[in-house]
Amino acid sequence: MSLSFVLGMAVALAIFLYWRVHGGQIPDFFSVLALLLCPPFVLARVTGPTPDSDFALVLISGTIVFANAVLYAGFAAGIYFVATVVAKRRRRVL
Question: What percent of the chain has pLDDT over 70?
Fold first, then answer.
């Protein structure tokens, strides 16, 4: 799960930095792909490429990165849970 958490942070940070470098202009296909890989990225779309202050930028980017990391870790925990339940049932049958 730690690896999933770090991967979620890396994906969110990469998408956010790409968005910031290009001034908030991401082609439609990549915008949809970014929202599929990082659902908290919708916060960046709502606030626009230039928030009012640096503090707002830190809050928005931190929220996006942390939320996506927790999302990926939760997904990995769910997969781990399902895998352990399936493995226990297979052992019981054999």
Answer: 90
